[in-house]
């Protein structure tokens, strides 16, 4: 009887140890595998972002004139968008000064050590240029203005634009540069200058021609996006009753432009610009990023 009990007890112990062995095997080979999967997921979720220096150089459009938040127009909007879309930690440096022509931008790039320093380490640059060059031609030839008046200034502008591109790449040979085209707000301020759209188109063509001479330099057109307002209704005539007579006065409106000057973009206009630049970057990023 004792031997029978001992036999049953022995079988029970063997069964227990067998189950324990199976449990240990499952724990060792299966649980760590799942744990490793969790670690992998966590690594993907919290992957370190690339630190990117973005340099914005230009005129009032880069400075952000018309942006009522006073944060810098399209530059901070674009920085945030690139960070979200490309998993970048973006540090932006805004070197926009209102009123600057291509010649003044070039001069600043030659003289300012901070611009040179940031360009050297930049991963991307945007450039707004040309609008003030056009305005100077308009002011200098206001009584005798035609499309042909802009031909010679455009050639000189192209030369300076090449110098800007080459100086930006002096210590950063493959720096991708996105040059934003000009747009036509002049019909609001100078409604009698009916050839201004042709002049703006020709000027943009001159800019695009230079951009095509270089690898990883891209032209970003914005005229069609801003020229006629948010819903394509730019130049809409609005009638306001004057307080001194029953006659009505007309004014042209563009809801993508700043109300105070009808020239620079408003907050929505800068969002439109940022979207256009981001779209162009997305289209071309593989050409220079190696991704």
TrEMBL record:
<dbReference type="InterPro" id="IPR013830">
    <property type="entry name" value="SGNH_hydro"/>
</dbReference>
<feature type="transmembrane region" description="Helical">
    <location>
        <begin position="12"/>
        <end position="31"/>
    </location>
</feature>
<feature type="domain" description="SGNH hydrolase-type esterase">
    <location>
        <begin position="56"/>
        <end position="272"/>
    </location>
</feature>
<keyword id="KW-0812">Transmembrane</keyword>
<protein>
    <submittedName>
        <fullName>SGNH/GDSL hydrolase family protein</fullName>
    </submittedName>
</protein>
<keyword id="KW-0378">Hydrolase</keyword>
<dbReference type="InterPro" id="IPR036514">
    <property type="entry name" value="SGNH_hydro_sf"/>
</dbReference>
<dbReference type="GO" id="GO:0016787">
    <property type="term" value="F:hydrolase activity"/>
</dbReference>
<dbReference type="InterPro" id="IPR051532">
    <property type="entry name" value="Ester_Hydrolysis_Enzymes"/>
</dbReference>
<dbReference type="Pfam" id="PF13472">
    <property type="entry name" value="Lipase_GDSL_2"/>
</dbReference>
<keyword id="KW-1133">Transmembrane helix</keyword>
<keyword id="KW-0472">Membrane</keyword>
